């Protein structure tokens, strides 16, 4: 895992913890904006991608918080979860890793607030009484979790997704995931490839027409891992570029697509050290825009991983 060039953070005080967690995310984005010009692959950015590959179903805000507190984390869970579900105990003296967890409560179908907050808003929804509202996340609160390295006890069962750079087992599922992603994919023999030096192409379709949302071609090679990574990269293009017509923005999303391929590839055990994460394309972006890009990377990688896991 790439090292994190900034010092680790802790959130020991409950009085200031919420504000400090928000401020840490904002400062991370501001620092990234300041450094995108300088490096091919910012260690700061790659450190987050490494954490995101370990926690693909976490929001980008939570993986940012994990990366800032414990960049080497691989598996996190709450104190009781480690005890009750995995028969492991958090070791004495370990510092908690603080992330956001949703507060689940009845939600107003109109404004999304819980009954108590709903009474204080201008929302006049009254079609159904509050006790008939469905439950959902109404807010978020800091909760402590611990990485497996901070615990001791029974070993966890080995996962079978670590391909160690060999994508032979994963490629069929990655290719089959095209249907789940509403994408048409084709692997073309090298002798029949007509797209020059490119290893893959993605042609998005009119979003107002029928599916698929994109047509993908990938050049076949002996290196199955490389073919798999390119296929995932093109899936990311299909999901990220649909409906985006602004040429500069499409060029910026090239970095997003490569970042998605990096996260997904690492999740399945591929060596992604050659990824071209040229952050200079984001040089003019504001911190909020950077965070939106991280959100898209996080959600798109999670969608692709889920689609592959279903096969």
Automatic annotation (TrEMBL):
Chain intervals with Polar residues compositional bias: 1-15
UniProt-recorded Gene Ontology molecular function terms: single-stranded DNA binding
Domain N-terminal: 17-104
Stretch list, region Disordered: 1-20
Cited Pfam families: ArdcN
Name recorded for this polypeptide: LtrC-like protein
Species of origin: Haloarcula marismortui ATCC 33799
